[in-house]
Each structure stands twice: as structure tokens, then as C-alpha cells.
Amino acid sequence: MPEKKSKMLKATQGLKNAMGRHYLAIEQAYRDGKPTAWATSGCPVELLYAMDVQPMLPENSATISAAQKYSQKFIELAEEEGFSYDMCSYFKTNLGAVMEDVDVYKGGIRKPTFMLSSDVICDTHSHWFQVQAERFGGVPHYIIDVPHVVSNTSKRQLDYFKKYVQEQMWELLDFIETHTGNKIDMEKAREVAANSYELSEVWRDIYELRKNIPSPISTKDTFGGLFPLFTMPGLRSPINLYKRMYREAKTRVDAGQGALENEEFRLMFEGIPFWYQLKYFAMLERFNAIIVYEPYTFAFSKFFSNPFEEFSKERLLKDPIECMSALMLSFWYIFDLETRIKWFKETVKDWKIDGVILHNNVSCRPNTTTFYDLKRRLGEEADIPCLIIDSDQNDPRKFNEVQVTNQIESFIEILRKSKRG
Amino acid sequence: MVKIAYFDADVVSPEEIFMAAGFTPFRLLGNPAIEHDKVNEHVPPTHCVWAKNILEQAIRGLNPEIKGVVTSHGCDCTNREFDIWVESVEIDFLFYLNVPLKRDKIALNFFLNDLKELVYQIEDRFKIKIQPEKIKEAIKLNNQIRKLLKEISEYRTKMILKGSEFHELVKLSQTNDKKKVLDILKKKLMELKNKTRFTEKKMKRILLTGSIIDDTEFLIFLEDKGFQVVADDLCIGSRYFWNTIEEDKDPIVAIAEYHLSKPLYSTKMPSYDRFEFLKFLAEKYEVDGIMNIAMKFCEPMLYDHPYMNKKFKELKIPYIFIEMSYNREQYKQLSTRFEAFAEMI
Ligand code: SF4
Ligand code: SF4
Questions:
Q1: Total H helices, total E strands in chain B
Q2: For residue B112, what is the domain's CATH number?
Q3: Beta pairing partners, B231
């Protein structure tokens, strides 16, 4: 079969610069003696910016290690320290990278002033930071405990869940002040929150464009495109980058151009991609298949991916702390099963998706636990074919390329048949 | 007998509330002898086998005496599997109790709210009223049980009661009518007071810790290898009875405070604090070694192990860590590792 290549947006090239600026800002913070913090995904990174603390996201660093083909080495180093083969590979990559004291371009990350984690996505996050805080000789660590929203959580429960998170948020501000001397400036908090909202909004708009047939962008733009949302929510610079991405994608839509020349199958990909083999996703293009939606990358557009409440800019500006607390309660990546099914069904319809690939990532139990039921229910209720592939986001030892390729080939055959009706 | 069962990675279920509502609290226990036919259709293979085992039993159908199941915040596996319970287990009442990750004042207030919600939902579902006085009575009864278990536990350390027999007693206490349990424990204590050592052989004195261990066969296996469990910090063990609940205050507040102040488990933070209790037990009971047994894929344990290893090395207390699947064949396969440990200490 001839190789086909989807076209990456020119604007996406700017991503490297944006991320480069992020790493420079980190270096600058160390030079200037400015406080720094590690944060796990799902935490309100905006508040760090608002308090003049430079955030660093170890998950982001771990993806760099994988993309640069270092993750396996770091994972094995962590295993030599006694951490099991079965544990989250982001954690082990981060541990190995810190042990080796590598630079940021290999996924290195320095000792911060303090650490901020939460269990909204996984309990793993808090364990991970506890390990690292101790190994650094005792870094202060604040955990935001977020109650788990499950399939039968009631509205009444959500109210006191939110109150709990909000109380911790205020405590967090005190914690930051104690460890950095920096006080919260509400005006700055509003400004940062407004930027974050705008960033989220443009990302949402980019996603909206993917509803078009053919889709103007592929995962070449979104897998990496996610990082500014993750590391720099609250800054101006990524907004401009996303706006450029949007404009270029819109031009393609207006011209009836797709990222892929002959788009035949529109797919959804759930889970974290294999960062050490991103090229692998281009393999789908040989079958004229394109991924047009990933809950994982859309999840970070948090103002527009919350199932329980509407988040307007006005509300956010009125009380950023209240809003940030409410936002923490749920996350597209780990929605409870009922919400997941509902959102998958709507997404499949709105983005005109032909098939769903679920990445049963052995690193990530919280994300994958309900995959089998999700697959069954989607099949029964939306008649949508789903494929589950087993692998790992950062550990190449757990990726069986031949097996996954065979599965995908058979899946495309199923889609082809079902399209022909 | 009507029961409310609890699916608990730790031992944080408020038994006294179930009792006050007229139910017998019943801890769901695994059964290592069953096949996982049904649960494998719901949960991927790299997830905790113990949690899967309980779900397997629940999908097949729990004892009809069980009218409801309460799951507590445990680990990433149990937390997310709750939705599968809602989806595939036929039961009248299912509640997810968000036991907080932390133990401070804010967490306590939140926990109170969640316990009140549990009370509300039980009342609503079963059309009953849970009287505070009844909760207080239940607290008193359970406190007696806790004190008895703590006293009986001392007989393991004197080699008068086998570790495996004690393990059975704790299980019995978590699965039976509490008045009956009280009688059994009282009798047992009387009996033990007149007993002598069960062995003259020098058995290795072990502190057992780790993921949930509910298969008493495992302790019998250890005894065959020459180990006596003289102390533990297990949920089917010391964490169930080490502390008692305050009897003279608002009962829900007392329950919440009790659960957030008793010896900590690896599922709660900062889990490294768990070391302090282990160190205390190891020194108090003059153990020869510590066994940390992790269920395969049990992340909370896997995260804590290297730290525990380091700390016990510093204290020069022999320590062994073993990852184990939930099946009895494993015990035999691991024989040589346990034997080597016995030789070492
Ligand atoms: S991959 Fe999963 S388990 Fe690991 S840090 Fe991310 S969300 Fe947590
Ligand atoms: S054994 Fe570990 S993984 Fe399994 S339910 Fe308990 S805490 Fe969770």
C-alpha cells in the first residue's frame, strides 16, 4: 500500500518555540531565585502563575523522554530502585530522569520549591510526588483531595464535593504563601483565569473545525498541541499560537481541504498515545483513516469539557477560586462510566465518527478500568465499532507493534464493511 | 439476618451505621479458589486480582441476605471499578463512600458530610430512621469487640494462639452478628488464659504488612515455613481494632474522627507515615523480620515498598517484599523465597 502523509498545520511548527519559551522561563526562574512548583495534570496550574510561581509538569517531561527514546532507560533505572514493572510508566520515567539528572530536552526536571498534586485523575499522582518529595530530601507537598464522582453520585453530593475542594484551594493559597512568600493577587488571578479561558475556547474552536468532512487537522497537530494547555494555561503566548492554528485550519475547511487527501474513515482515539512511537499513528493514514477526536487532548479544554456545569467567562472572573474548584471535580479523561457513555455517544454523532480505538494503557488503570463496558454499551446503544488495543504510553517494552497493526487492519476491514452497509 | 456488605480495600467502612440501621455489617472477602469467568469481561487483566475476585462474586450474585454494598475510596482500581458494580451487579443499594485521602480538619468535615449522605441514602432506600442512640449502642458494642481482639492479639505474641487462628477471629468479627462475635471472643479469651504455648519450636516472629490478606491459608502456609505472625497492621488485623471510637460525643463525628486517626494504610496520604506504626509494632513485639506482601498490581503498596525497604534497612530489621497473585498455587511457587528469608533471619 502506498505511504500517505497527512499535512500538519504550518502553525503547529510554532509549538516547539512555545514549549521552548516554557523551558526558558523555568531556567530563568531558577536563575532569578523565583519559586517553582511541580504540578500534576488536573491541578489548577493557573493559580501558580497567578502567584508568580513557575510551574513544571513532570508528565510533560516524561513525554519528552519518551519522544527522545530515553523513557525505557529511565523506567529500567526506576525498576532497579525497587519500583515494579507494573507501575505507571510516567512516574518511572520521571524518577529515572531525575536520578540521571538529564537536561530538559531529555525530560529532566529540577527540584522545585514545592509540589502540588491531586487525586482527581489518579491516586498515583499523589504517591508519585510523595516518592519524589522524599527523595529530594523533603520538598513541601500539597495534595488537593478531590472526591470521586461515580456513576450514581447525586447533585446534592456534588455540592459538598465542590465545597471541600474549594476549602482546600484556599488552604493551598496559604500553603504557597508560606513556602514562597508570594501572596495571591486577585486581579492577577482574574487575568490569568481569563487567559486560560480564552486558550480553552480557541482549542474548543479548533476541535469544532474537526467536525468538518474532511477534517482539517490530524493528531499531528493535537497530540503535541495539547502541551501549552497543560503547561501554560494563563499565559498569553499560547493563545496566539492556537489562533494561528485555528485560522489555518479554517482556511482548509473553507477550501474543502482535509489534512488527509482521501479521508475515508473518521476515528476517535481514547487514551494517551504511545509517545515513543508517535509516527505509528501515521500508519492509519495508509488506510485513509484519520483520528478526528481524542478525549485526552480535549480534556484540557476544561471550561468546555465539564459534564456538570456551565462555565462562563463572567462566572470565572467573578470568582476564579470557586470556578477552579468546581472545574476540578471532573475530567473527560476519567469520567464516570455513565457520563463517559453519554459523551462518547454524542461525540461520535457530532464528529461523524466511524469507529473508536480505545488504548488499554497498562500504565493507567484509572483511565482504562471501564473500557470493556464502554465498548459493549457503545456497540449496543450507538452501533459504533470499537477496538481495544493493549500497550503503554511511555514503556516501549509493552508495545507489540505486529499485534497492534494486525488488530487495526482487521478493524479497518470491519469499518469498511459497515460503511458499505 | 439482613446485611450490608462492604467492599473495602482498607477498613474504613462505618459498621456502626449499618448496625444502627438494623443490618449486620459484612466484609466481602475474596475466594482464591474461584475462576474469573465473568469479571474478565469487565476489567482488563492488569488490574488488582483481589478486587476482581470480589467483583466476580458480586456479578455471579451475592448472598440474598445482603441488601446493599458500600464501597470505600481505596485505590485507582477500586475507585473506578465502582461504576462497573453499578452497571453489572444486581443489588438494591450501592453507595460509594469518599473516604478522604488526607486526615486534616477540612478532610474531616468533608467525611462527615459523606457519612451523613450515607445515612440519608440508607434511610431513604430502606424507609427507616437511623437513631443516633442506636449508633451509640453499636459503637459501644464494637468497642468491646475491638478491645477483646486487641487483648487476644497479645496471645499470638506469646505463642499461645496461632497467627492464622487469630486471623480467622478477625475475619469472623467482620462478617457476623456482633453480639454473637462478642460471645465468641469472650469465650476465646477465657480459653486462652488457661492455655500454654502451642509449640516449643523456635518460630520466627513476623510482622505482617501489605495489601489486603484475607486468605487464612496464607498464614497457615507461613506457619508451615516456621513463621508466626505476632503482629500486623492489616485491615483484617490490627487496623480493625487498634483504636476505639469515642463514646461520649456525637456518634457520626466520633466515627469520622476514629477512621481518620487510626493507623494509616498505603491508600491514604501521606502513606509514608505508615512506617511509624510499623516501626512501633516491630519494636514492641521484638519481631525477627517484616513481610510486606503486595497483591499483584497493587499500586499503593508498590509505591511504598522502596521507602519501607530503606527505612527498615536503617533500623537493621530484616524485610522481605513479595508481589503475589491471588491464588494458592502462588504460595507454593514462592516457597523458596520464604525459606531463604527464614534462613536469613
Ligand atoms: S498515566 Fe494514568 S496513572 Fe499514570 S499519571 Fe497519568 S493518569 Fe495517573
Ligand atoms: S489490594 Fe491494592 S490494588 Fe487491590 S484493592 Fe487493595 S489497595 Fe487496591
A1: 14, 8
A2: 3.40.50.11890
A3: B207
pLDDT of residue A421: 67
pTM of the model: 0.97
Domain count for chain B, please give it: 1
- For the stretch B19-75, pLDDT in tens is 999 999 999 999 999 999 999 999 999 999 999 999 999 999 999 999 999 999 999
Cβ–Cβ under 8 Å, residues A227 and A19: yes
DSSP bridge partners of A269: A357
Is B30 among the domain residues? yes
Q: In angstroms, what is the span from residue A365 Cα to ligand 1's centroid? A: 8
What's the pLDDT at A331? 87
**Domain annotation covers residue B26:** yes
Q: Is A87 on the interface with B (CB under 8 A)?
A: yes
Query: Which member of B76, B83, B296 has the closest CB to residue A150?
Result: B83
pLDDT band at A375 (very low <50, low <70, confident <90, very high): very high
**Residue ranges in chain B modelled with pLDDT below 70:** none
Whether B307 contacts chain A with CB within 8 A: yes
Task: Please check whether residue A325 touches B, CB under 8 A.
Answer: no
pLDDT for A5 equals 73
Structural domain contains residue B108: yes
Element at A96 (helix H, strand E):
helix A89-100
Distance linking the first and last C-alpha atoms of chain A: 24
ipTM over 0.95: yes
Contacts of B73 in chain A (CB under 8 A): 147-148
> Measured between alpha carbons, how far is B113 from B109 in angstroms, rounded to an integer?
6
* Residue B44 structural domain: 3-131
Name which of A130, A145, A337 is nearest B100 (Cβ-Cβ).
Answer: A145
Domain annotation covers residue B18: yes
Calculated CA dihedral for residues A153, A154, A160, A165, nearest 10 degrees: 40
Pocket test residue of A59, A92, A395 for ligand 1, highest count of atoms within 8 A of CB? A59
